[in-house]
Amino acid sequence: MVFAAKQQSPPTIIVEIQNIVNDSFVSRLNKYCLNANDEYGCKPISIIFSIKKTTKSIFEKSSIRTSTSFARTLPSYPWAEECILLDADTIKEHINEKPLHPLVALTIFFTQQKQNIRDCLRNDDVTIQNLYVIAKTLYEPKMSSLKSLSKDFNSIYLESRNHMSQALEILSKDNNDVENNKRAATVLQEGIKIVDEYAKRHKTQHGEASLPSSSSPSSLQDQPNGRRMDWKDCHSEGAKQGLFNEYQDGNSIKSMYYSISTPSRRKRNIAGAQNPAALKIPQLQAIIDEAIGSSSSSSSPPSTEEETSNTEHVNSTVISSSNEIIRT
């Protein structure tokens, strides 16, 4: 993230949340900082949260930050004012302090990644508690939607299975009986109506659904990454690995995929990937501002963050000091 100041103080701040900090990531961070310098006319301060690992080559280049000994700094001249590195190792001597420094608390939150606050280290600390409140506020709507979807999926499964069982029972009596065949067809049509009702409900709740018809080709469908999905091959490969046992063929996998992945959701996901600053988190900015403000009076060496080509980049965003997102 980049907290871009609109005035002299506080400075522009680039925040990177990184799984693995290594040389290739630092090269990218260099570009981020130069871009921020071009955009806002001042060298930024970079704060790196290393989640899983800081490579030996990076650690050896770093030094303890004199004003905040729980952090290390990396050489950043001339592309950044300062580069601050935090990970589980840098803060380990400070995790018992009361209260926790906001950046120590934030590092604990990022590196531990506990879903429940009861499992998180120092869950008695106010900053840790506030971070979990923020996370809960952000994810509650998503969890509510998933619970509703799960409940409806269970209902549609039971009702559809019941109608199919009735149809099979009718047909098993006498396949040549025209009336039996008509009754079976009626029962199956009722089952289709139930499925359509659930599809329509979720289409209304989650935006336009792209539910393919049973007669549509199953081999080619657009994917968000621009490639095409071969649902038949998907089912075949999954079956080899012991997956998809509950799906009859590629069509059934495709139908389930589109029932829970609407175009509007895909557009949001793509937008989020292109602009990780899609969410405003003023509480997080307040923690960063407080931490930087308390130590900005002293100058110390910079520190930086990096990632290998096969390492997941957790987040990189640009936000202003007035809680307004500027750009990514």
TrEMBL record:
Low complexity biased stretches: 210-220, 294-303
Q: Which intervals carry biased composition (Polar residues)?
A: 311-328
Q: Where is this region: Disordered?
A: 201-233, 290-328
Q: Which domain of life is it from?
A: Eukaryota
This chain belongs to the protein called Uncharacterized protein
Source species: Circinella minor
